[in-house]
Amino acid sequence: MPSALRDWLDKPNTGRGVHLAADDGGWEFRDYGELASAARRTAGALVEEGVRPGDVVCLILPTDFTCVETYFAVWAAGATVCLITPPLFQDGDDYVAHVAAILRQASPALVVASDGLADYARRAMAGAGLDGEPWRPRQADEEAEVRPAGELALLQFTSGSSGSPRGVMVTWENLEANSELIAREAGYEDGDVVASWLPLYHDMGLIGCFLTPIARQGTLKLMRPDHFIRDPARWLRCFGEAAHTAAPPFAYAYCARRVKPEQLEGLDVSGWKMALIGAEPIDPHTLEVFAQLMEPFGFSRTMFKPAYGMAETTLLVTMDDVPRDPLAVRPDPEALAFGQPVRILDQHTLGPESLGAKAGWVVGCGTPEDDVPVAIVDDEGRELDSGLLGEIVVGGPSACPGYFAGAEAKSTRFMDGKVYTGDAGFFHEGQLFVLGRMGDSIKVRGRSVYVEDLESKIAEVSGLGKGRIVVVGVPGAGRKGLALFAETQDEAWIGGVREMLRRRLGDDVELTIVVGAGLIQRTSSGKPRRRYMWERLQGGHMEGARIIS
């Protein structure tokens, strides 16, 4: 299958390329001619190794030029890319088990790993029952021709850790449609510079800030996440030249907390076009403190582009492409019920009054485009009018066909060419407002944390049997929430569980603990009816339930 995303490999622009952050504070540069040649020689080595069009190739590589070249080498060989996160902050054994679960599902023809990550890869391959050794990137003597590709461009495993990871099948059609949507919504023009520190294994970093600019042979300034954490001012200084970026809300809050104005002396960011915010609920306070830090250097609040997306829709669903200050609203938490009107207690556009507007507030994520239709539906799948709370459903060519190898999720479903997201939201004044997950996961610092994992840990810490515990991700305005249902009258275990969850999730996840008898409702196949249980509690229909504050 031909694809514009690979065209640059045959027609590289040697006047542009990728600037990769170095550990000494400088930048390394390679133009697209060098990158294309290296990718095609690496593709030749992959073909010699037996990789064929349509095969899956898993990459376990740090963000460096070898990763860039190998990624496109897999595409040049006609294969499907599956990028797997390096270990970062995970325990070694937990990381190996997670990678092994991915490998079992992906069934790759080849696992590629750097020297530093080869031992992890070897152990994961053994755990997945795969023979052989991880393949170290190398280049053939001759450049390979770009081969025909199969249907799938990439397998995007949803972020976070879970005992049963799910790989989203992203077709070439999906990827091309979403890349075009991103460029259009961002106002991307030929020659624009993109700056990013986001990891490449995450959909926002991979598709939004890596594949989209490279396919257009734009200039990319790429940092690793640890570069950003050590020196967030280095990222901000990119915007004396760069026009586009994307990051989760915590990154903007981190900059406002860590960066001093004197570190930015002489910087002019007035040419900055787009600072996309996504991957988790957005509170206006975070945006305002960042705006106040950057305003003296030419930043405008209209540069903020709140957005909504997910791996199952390739990436982007909506982004506010109108040059205006973001709109924040505060819904009545007591009136948040599926199928019912959302009562707005207060609203304002971003500005000084946004300071302190954290939990309880949510920011609009723009109006859907015609080629990405978005609907809000009730529990029966009936479309709801504007102002009513329901589940967000996404259609159009960016909607992926499903999970690889028949995997299933409990909240997100694929039906009739649409993605039933498992996210709660509503329309207000033409914009989509997203309250977050309701069901099997929550977003914490840009990664999905699956409730099944939490249930296992809670059962261990509390001493209660796993069958007596159900955790539900619940939506709320400007916050992340969990409800823990425990079939017990005892409360002695609660302190230890709260502390464990605080260490694992941070301080910004609101926890509701419910105890009592007969709380847990299950389907005929024994699966917890998570959203149903939360709605029964909210509606006052859960007899014998006690909420522990």
Automatic annotation (TrEMBL):
<comment type="similarity">
    <text>Belongs to the ATP-dependent AMP-binding enzyme family.</text>
</comment>
<dbReference type="InterPro" id="IPR042099">
    <property type="entry name" value="ANL_N_sf"/>
</dbReference>
<dbReference type="GO" id="GO:0016874">
    <property type="term" value="F:ligase activity"/>
</dbReference>
<keyword id="KW-0436">Ligase</keyword>
<dbReference type="InterPro" id="IPR000873">
    <property type="entry name" value="AMP-dep_synth/lig_dom"/>
</dbReference>
<feature type="domain" description="AMP-dependent synthetase/ligase">
    <location>
        <begin position="25"/>
        <end position="404"/>
    </location>
</feature>
<dbReference type="Pfam" id="PF00501">
    <property type="entry name" value="AMP-binding"/>
</dbReference>
<dbReference type="InterPro" id="IPR045851">
    <property type="entry name" value="AMP-bd_C_sf"/>
</dbReference>
<dbReference type="InterPro" id="IPR020845">
    <property type="entry name" value="AMP-binding_CS"/>
</dbReference>
<dbReference type="GO" id="GO:0006633">
    <property type="term" value="P:fatty acid biosynthetic process"/>
</dbReference>
<protein>
    <submittedName>
        <fullName>Acyl-CoA synthetase (AMP-forming)/AMP-acid ligase II</fullName>
    </submittedName>
</protein>
<dbReference type="GO" id="GO:0005886">
    <property type="term" value="C:plasma membrane"/>
</dbReference>
<dbReference type="GO" id="GO:0070566">
    <property type="term" value="F:adenylyltransferase activity"/>
</dbReference>
